[in-house]
Amino acid sequence: AVGALRRALSSPLAPALVGARGVCTGAGGRGVGARAWRVYLSGEIHSSWREELAAGVARAQLPIELSAPNTSHEDSDDCAAIILGMEEKRPNWDRIGASMNAVRTRTLIDQADVVVVRFGEKYRQWNAAFDAGYAFAKGKPIITLHPPSLGHSLKEVNAAANVVCEDVSQVVQTLAYVIDGALPPPKDGDAFIPIVERLGKGNPNP
């Protein structure tokens, strides 16, 4: 199996792993010497969503360092057996592998400013729900990412999340707003009505 480090360095994610810095175009601004945000990308490993998100971060020139679990399914299954030796029974094989992978996962979640958790339509990545729970217990802001069809089955996870997104572009836009105060055109287009016009002032006597 190809080593995880070699894959990480050759991945399209690699430029974003060291952070992408640029000129602020948002209303909030970040100024000289602004901090880099650490964003951990948890969840399904069978699609290119991480690469798409990294590309969006780079285009938006956001000061973000992305991290992720080992995204090789085979390596994450066999890592401990390769290093420590094979086990006779599957539960033991899985246990030592999960424990070894948890060293990376817990460390990077602990270091993260924001945790993005992706649930796919085909590959649900049940361990992603555990990552979300761990991040919540650690007080980390959580952004979930999944198609609308999974909303009901993930309602408890989404209730603990700060933001629930349907596609990668919404995650990038959320990060751009949080970091820079930059907002995209409204999702509802010309139908969008500001809250003051739609529902009135929250405090009529400021």
UniProtKB/TrEMBL annotation:
Superkingdom per UniProt: Eukaryota
InterPro entries listed in its UniProt record: YtoQ_family_protein (IPR019884)
Pfam families: Nuc_deoxyri_tr3
NCBIfam families referenced in this protein's UniProt entry, alphabetically: YtoQ_fam
The protein's name: YtoQ family protein
